[in-house]
Specification:
Layout (H helix, E strand, L loop, with lengths): L1 H16 L17 H18 L4 H8 L11 E3 L10 E4 L17 H6 L3 H17 L4 E2 L23 H16 L4 E7 L12 E3 L2 H8 L1 H8 L4 E4 L3 E2 L2 E2 L4 H11 L5 E4 L9 H4 L20 H9 L5 H17 L30 H12 L1 E5 L10 E5 L40 H12 L2 E5 L5 H8 L4 E8 L24 H9 L5 E7 L14 E6 L7 H9 L34 E3 L8 H6 L17 E10 L17 E11 L5 E3 L2 E5 L10 E5 L2 E3 L4 E9 L5 E3 L4 E3 L5 E6 L5 E7 L3
The structure holds 2-acetamido-2-deoxy-beta-D-glucopyranose (NAG) (4 copies).
């Protein structure tokens, strides 16, 4: 208490000194979690229990059993129960928009939203997506996806938030809140350890208990505290038991330890037995046993029979039905929810009613594109200043001649890359390619554009680039889901090089043009040692996977309408072997063993521990202006107390606040992304530093703002595998504030009693 009063008094003084700056000290909107979500669940459970009193066994099982593959308009369908007035449920991919739909938006992928390091943009995208799912009559949006980028080639990592669980947790939390604010159920996936595509239907991911809690389950805890309605169990095994059959994982870690009160649905055909219900599976999707149209199901009639012969207690089915119906009430779907009006399987079928749900979402998409574009190198050539001549080089600059949706589920790499492939995709309503967006802008400036869109014709590239004031070379690297192989990549990428010989294309241009700018569209890290230090390469921009507004978002940054503030949500290494983990590509085992031997040390945690210099570190990104940091103060105001469970509300209470000042001391308005890294005491055996705070702070030229970060008990705790609780290690914590994981600007310490 005394500490609290002391700290408050001092911080009052600090703020008084700064009273000339009437700006709020936290720059994003805080949205409630935890106890708030719990009281909403209480009310939803009460409604569900009341409704279920009149359901018979078959009806309860109906709630838990998908109608079958392509039976119904959505990728997953729970049939209506007319006798109960239950309208049924439509479940639809994906984490970046409504999949298999028309007149809907193709949002930037989560990996880009992560690169904004901006909670408000994370939330706003999710609100817009929630509006689109609702407008189409989709009850359950199958996202966010929150598996970690453990191996940099991991095929689906771009559907998630990169290499840090704190960043992934923030993205997941804001996404759940945004989607569910529109009365659409979110689905946290894939539970758990689905970090590679090779062998995903057979392999076992083996992860130690502490790592499981501190890295892989961590974003799920945030989603659960945000009130997520459903969780999807994964294809893979964990500790040699299938995720959807895994009682330790579902009944144990998810429902007991993390306190998840919604329902667990299977990934598509990831149910393996009727008895998966005993392990904690609540809903089977799409309902039938294996891929195809056979109508058999592990649930449905077999589940009714299993209850009747005593294999499965009816109380378990009651619990399943309660959880599913509670999620429906939690999101108020009993009140005025639109009827499903999309039809996934044939867009010209009259059941697809072409309801336009896009609203003004193009503007938030474009805003995220600008905010997620990472400026990796700039020797002063950017922003562009009305060049007289410009060359645009590479197939990634232009359109796919057959249209942006020419390949089902984006399963090809032709034309500019704006999303990966697989079920985590959406149809593009349109795709603004960079060449056309730059051409539009250039014509207003009177810039003459020459283009060469072949990746292999190096002579044509050099000829186009030669003698031009600036040459922009576009390269890319794509990945996706295992059911489609693209250019020999079975989901996971085969390597970390740019596709289509991109390095040679860049080198051919840089050999002839002293003002060469490289733009990289990519699903994850790309090695660029072949050319990054080339003296003629004056700038490198990293727009990731920007969605439908790709070219417009890029133009905003190229010409300086937006001052770049995107930061890498993963490390770009100098060589593949520098990374702590890789995909297991070959195995002769019946159950391939994916051992997470690197433990806690994924992404920057590994590079820091092993003292490996990355090419570009986690959190890195440049600006057209510069920022000065000062006046770091750390204010502890609570006692640390004893071990706590994940569900203990006091674990999540703030116990310290960190404040500092940022000044824009450069030539332009701009946005800075201050990051807080905590260095745990040695007794914790933790990575050298871990991200525990970030914000996106806009500052006019010359402007100063106070930034503050709250630190919770959870933020400074480690998972004690003996106590099976969170404990605060004893000793002094280092507090580091900087512009990236390796650009520390201020440091201090935190001591708790
Ligand atoms: C359960 O309810 C359904 C109507 O939803 C009805 O058709 C069925 O006969 C009922 N089953 C039993 C065993 O009463
Ligand atoms: C109970 O019913 C299920 C589903 O039909 C069946 O698989 C299982 O073998 C039955 N068990 C017993 C003990 O009869
Ligand atoms: C799609 O629906 C249209 C309109 O009903 C129909 O003419 C067409 O044959 C359908 N296509 C397929 C592949 O079923
Ligand atoms: C840079 O570009 C110029 C053409 O302006 C060329 O003569 C030179 O060789 C290039 N430098 C390198 C290292 O390729």
């Amino acid at each position: 208490m005394q500490l609290f009063l002391l700290a408050t008094a001092f911080s009052g003084l600090l703020f008084e000194q700064l009273s000339a700056t009437p700006t709020p000290v936290t720059h994003y909107t805080k949205r409630n979690s935890g106890s708030d979500a719990n009281s909403k669940w209480d009310a939803a459970y009460a409604k569900a229990n009341a409704a279920l009193a009149s359901y018979n066994l078959t009806e309860k099982v109906t709630l838990a059993t998908g109608a079958g593959w392509q039976v119904g308009p959505c990728v997953g369908n729970i049939p209506a129960i007319p006798a109960q007035g239950f309208p049924g449920l439509c479940l639809q991919d994906s984490p970046l928009g409504v999949r298999l739909s028309t007149e809907s938006s193709a949002f930037p992928a989560a990996i880009n939203v992560a690169a904004t390091f901006n909670r408000d943009l994370m939330y706003k995208r999710a609100v817009a997506m929630g509006q689109e799912f609702r407008g189409k009559g989709v009850n359950v949006a199958l996202g966010p996806m929150m598996n970690m980028m453990r191996a940099p080639t991991g095929g689906r990592a771009w559907e998630g938030w990169g290499g840090d669980p704190f960043l992934a947790g923030a993205g997941s939390e804001e996404t759940v809140k945004g989607i569910q604010s529109q009365g659409v159920q979110a689905c946290a996936k894939h539970w758990l350890n689905n970090e590679q595509e090779h062998y995903r239907d057979t392999s076992s991911s083996n992860v130690d208990d502490r790592t499981q809690h501190e890295i892989y389950a961590a974003p799920f805890l945030k989603a659960i505290r945000a009130g997520v309605a459903s969780v999807m169990c994964a294809y893979n095994r964990v500790s040699n038991t299938y995720s959807c059959s895994n009682s330790d994982l579902l009944n144990g870690l998810l429902k007991t330890d993390l306190g998840f009160r919604g329902y667990v649905q299977s990934d598509w055909w990831a149910t393996h037995a009727t008895t998966d219900a005993l392990a904690g599976l609540d809903m089977t999707m799409p309902g039938n046993k294996v891929y195809g149209n056979a109508p058999d199901s592990y649930f449905g009639e077999e589940l009714v029979a299993a209850v009747q012969n005593g294999t499965i207690p009816e109380s378990r089915v009651n619990d399943m039905a309660t959880r599913i119906l509670a999620a429906f009430y939690l999101t108020n779907q009993d009140e005025g929810f639109p009827a499903t009006n999309l039809y996934s399987w044939n867009f010209t079928d009259p059941r697809n009613q072409h309801v336009n749900v896009q609203g003004d979402h193009a503007s938030i998409i474009r805003q995220i594109d600008g905010a997620s574009t990472v400026l990796l190198k700039n020797k002063g050539s950017l922003p562009l200043k009305k060049p007289r001549t410009m060359a645009i080089i590479g197939s990634d600059a232009g359109p796919n001649p057959d249209g942006p949706n020419a390949c089902a589920d984006r399963g090809c790499n032709t034309g500019t890359l704006a999303m990966g492939w697989g079920s985590g995709t959406a149809e593009f309503p349109y795709l603004v390619d960079p060449l056309s967006a730059i051409t539009t802008h250039a014509s207003a400036d009177g810039t003459a554009i020459t283009s060469s869109l072949s990746d292999s014709d190096l002579a044509a590239a050099a000829s186009a680039a030669s003698g031009k004031e600036v040459a922009i070379v576009f390269i890319n690297s794509d990945s996706g889901e295992a059911y489609i192989t693209v250019e020999g990549n079975a989901g996971d990428r085969n390597d970390l090089y740019a596709w289509h010989g991109g390095d040679a294309l860049v080198q051919a241009v840089a050999a002839v043009n002293p003002n060469t700018i490289v733009v990289v569209h990519a699903s994850g890290p790309v090695l660029m040692e072949a050319w990054i230090d080339h003296p003629n390469i004056t700038a490198v921009l990293w727009p990731g996977l920007p969605g439908q507004e790709s070219g417009n978002g890029l133009v905003d940054v190229l010409y300086g309408a937006v001052n770049p503030s995107g930061r890498l949500p993963y490390t770009i290494a100098k060589q593949r072997s520098d990374y702590p983990a890789d995909v297991l590509y070959t195995s002769s085992d019946a159950i391939p063993q994916v051992d997470y031997t690197e433990g806690l040390y994924i992404d920057y945690r590994w590079f820091d521990k092993k003292n490996i210099a990355p090419r570009f570190e986690f959190g890195f990104g440049l600006s057209y202006t510069s920022f000065k940091y000062s006046a770091l103060a750390v204010w502890p105001y609570a006692l640390k107390g004893g071990p706590r469970a994940s569900t203990d509300e006091s674990l999540h209470q703030n116990i310290a606040t960190v404040t500092f000042i940022i000044k824009n001391n450069g030539p332009l308005d701009g946005t800075e992304i201050p990051q807080l890294y905590l260095k745990f005491p040695d007794s914790a055996n933790s990575p050298p530093q871990v991200l525990r705070g970030f914000d996106s702070v806009f500052l006019r030229k010359g402007q100063t703002k106070v930034v503050s970060f709250d630190i919770s008990r959870y933020d400074i705790s480690v998972w004690d595998t003996n106590k099976q609780k969170w404990v605060i290690p004893s000793g002094k914590f280092g507090v580091s504030i900087g512009a990236s994981s390796r650009d520390e600007r201020l440091s201090s310490s935190l001591v708790l009693f």
